Amino acid sequence: MAKSSKKAKIRAKREEGEVAQIPESLQNISLPRIIDIETFREARKIELNHFLTVLSQKAAAGGNLGSKKSFQLLPKHMRRRAMSHNSYRVPARIRVAIHSAAAMKQPCRKRRRHTRTMLLDYERRNKKAIWLETHIWHAKRMKMIEKWGYKIALHPNDKSIRAVYRFASHNCVVYDRSYYISLILKDKNFIESHVKVEKKCGFHREGSIMDGEKLICPVEIIMKEEEWVIIIHPASYKEVKELLEKENVYHIDLKDKVVIYSFMGPKSTELLASVMNIKESNINEIIQDLKQFKNLAFPNGAAIGLTLMMSKKHQKIRTMPKQLCLTAETSNIIPSQPSINILKMIVKWNPSISNTPLWDTLKGSPEKSHVPQKLTTRNSKSRYPKVPKIPEKQENQPIKEAPQIEESEKMEIEEVETVNKESVEMEIEVEISENEQFEVNGILVFRKSKMARGFAEGWDLILPSGNGPEFWRTCIYSGAKAIGLRDYNAIKLEQAIPSYPDDFPTTSAYQTYAQEQAKIDVENYFKRPSSKRVNFERISMPFPFYSDWFGILGVTSYTQLKLIQIKCHNRIPQRRALLCKPASEDFIDKKGPTFQEPLSEKSKLNHLWTVEDFGNFKANLSRQVVGFITSGGFSFIKARGFGIGYIQTNYDSEITDKILFRNPKSRFYHLCEIKRL
Question: If you average pLDDT over residues 325-335, what whole number do you get?
Fold first, then answer.
């Protein structure tokens, strides 16, 4: 009895638990008497489809059938390994799903590395940013970035900052700046009214393109008889094109139709002389003399037109001979004197040397393809000629005297000699066919260095597109070191040469560059934890991520700024550093003391700062700001901190060669020397 009552209690308790309790909020609500079936079905459509899918374990073909894979729909005794090798052994009712799942897999690497597949992939990837001809070579060895619509090498993957300096000082570095754009103009009035020429030599000039009082960009000009070729930076390409269209100037666009290689270093001439096969004997004599005599005062910016003989097939790499140039400083032997023609040319430059048919051949050339048209392949069957098989020698037999040699043996000897002769002739013919050459017109522009020992002195070689990769590899294997954009700007900074657009604050390209760089710096700033960030309000730094040229300095034109170089003995100036006017009491201590910006009494905590707060942030400085540093760092040549920047033209101080600078993340002012450029 007790046992049956216990079972009854358990049954009653179970029945009470299975009954769902109605919430009190729903007890007084009455259900609608009429329901719209269509609306209810649409509202429950997703749930119903999922419910039916789970019940039937069927779904669209794609590998995942409900909660199971396709092969899991079969009974366990049918899930054999043979299905993975022969898909037709799978039952027909799930065969479509099995095939569709296999089609979704990525092709194997061997198929993905086929030449046609790779070229199609290159074409797809090239649509976003244009590739240079040497892109594949650079992409394997350097950090690549997208800049100005091109894919450009930034720096090598290895530690190369000091190595680049050594090569630029004692050897040769090469930089591919083929992203620069060339335009042919025929309007002399436009050149006279909108181009401000600064340097002249022969047919090559350097200057700036102006739109009234507005500076657009620096420009290189190569003059012809009735035409002018201007080479501009791609950051200002759109602005220059708009100016030409506004002035109705007829021009020929040579974008991506030329390659420009910059060779920098004291051995640049020696490397080019060993690599180039120049057709003109007089030009070849000039290059050979320049290679032998380093101390020749060759005019800066001199342009030399030449014709290179290039091979249609892969030619043997011509390495640079390992021998020192004969100069009075490096050898006790008195070298022979250079030719009289070279000396006359140095005294008075002959403009006819700059003539070249390069630009005429480029006018009607088709549009360049930005995708490599072929890939380097090695096929052992096609590399060597097929030589007829020589009959095998017979076994060793006793030597016979001359009269005893049979006629059959004489015939065999003659056949062997004939075969050997034919094979030699065939090899000669193949060698000649491989060395078939064609002419390539080009132009060399000499860049003379102002630094000691010919630092970064060299040439700019301009060639038509399509001939770059072969010549580039030849130069690399001959001893030149390839560099990226970072190293190229560092070499220019060592020579106190401003880089565009980094060091041209009044141009539109600089504003775009500054905004992009500020965005990157702000993102990196907020990636750090709040305890590791610099509180710019606390140290009274109003411009941590940008330089306020138009606000605090009130600059409206490039004529209101003066380019200067900064040298500091014990500190390193950085980009966007403030340049402040020193006071008379700052020069009492001759050891060069540092001065500290007082801390702000009221400042927001770091974790409360947002991006919007920097736009409304203002700070009161204890010193007058007269300029900013645009590029700075450590100079290996001067062995101290060095930089270039701009100050106000009307800057007036008691000490004209001294100024104070303050880095963006610092409170200290440091005394430094300035020199107006």
Answer: 44
Burial class of 18 by CB neighbour count within 10 A (0 to 12, 13 to 18, 19+): exposed
Count CA atoms within 13 Å of residue 382 on its CB side.
5
Q: Which residue has the tokens 């009289």?
A: 340
What is the mean predicted confidence (pLDDT) over 175-181? 93
Model pLDDT, residue 396: 43
Residues 468 and 545 in one domain: no
Handedness of CA 149, 447, 640, 162 (dihedral sign): positive
Do 239 and 141 fall into the same domain? Answer: no
3-state secondary structure of 96: helix
Going by pLDDT thresholds of 50, 70 and 90, the confidence category of residue 513 is very high
Beta-sheet pairing, 64-65 with 130-131: unpaired
Asked whether residue 368 is domain-assigned, the answer is no
Which range, 141-150, 334-343, 647-656, has the best average confidence (pLDDT)? 141-150
Pairing state between β 142-147 and 204-211? unpaired
Task: Please give the tally of structural domains in the chain.
Answer: 3
Q: If you search the block for the tokens 């004489």, which residue do you land on?
A: 410
How is 315-346 classified by DSSP, letter by letter?
PPP-PPP------TTT-SS-PPPPPHHHHHHH
pTM for the complete prediction?
A: 0.73
Tell which phi-psi region holds residue 633, choosing left (phi > 0), alpha (psi between -120 and 50) or beta.
left
> How is residue 299 written in tokens?
């005019």
Cα 206 from chain centroid? 24
Q: How many CB atoms lie within 10 A of CB 354?
A: 21
Q: Cβ of 669: how many Cβ atoms within 10 Å? A: 22
Tokens coding 600: 């702000």
Q: Are residues 249 and 264 in the same domain?
A: no
Q: Is 639 helix (H, G, I), strand (E, B) or coil?
A: coil
Last residue of a domain, one of 229, 254, 279: 254
Query: Is 390 exposed, middle or buried (CB count within 10 Å of its CB: 0-12, 13-18, 19+)?
Result: exposed
Q: How far apart are CA 579 and CA 659, in angstroms?
A: 7
In angstroms, what CA-CA distances link 218 with 31, 501, 570? 80, 9, 33
553 and 621 belong to one structural domain:
yes
Question: Do residues 224 and 325 lie in contact, with contact meaning Cβ atoms separated by under 8 Å?
Answer: no
Same structural domain for residues 143 and 212? no
Residue 658 to residue 671: CA distance in whole angstroms: 7
Residue 270 within any structural domain of the chain: yes
In angstroms, the first-to-last Cα distance of the chain is 114
Task: Give the per-residue pLDDT at 172.
Answer: 92
Q: What is the pLDDT of residues 198-255, one digit of tens each?
A: 766 556 778 888 888 888 999 988 877 778 889 999 999 999 999 988 888 888 888 9
Q: Which amino acid is at 69?
A: K
Beta carbons within 8 Å of 333's beta carbon, 6+ residues apart: 326
Helices 281-292, 340-347: axis angle to 10 degrees equals 80
**C-alpha separations of 643 from 254, 657, 661 in Å:** 35, 15, 11
Under 8 Å CB-to-CB from 83, ≥6 apart: which residues? 71, 89, 90, 98
Distances (CA, A) of 594 to 552, 660, 668: 24, 9, 6
Burial of 166 (0-12, 13-18, 19+ CB in 10 A): middle
Q: Quick one: 639 and 551 in the same domain?
A: yes
Helix (H, G, I), strand (E, B) or coil at 602: coil
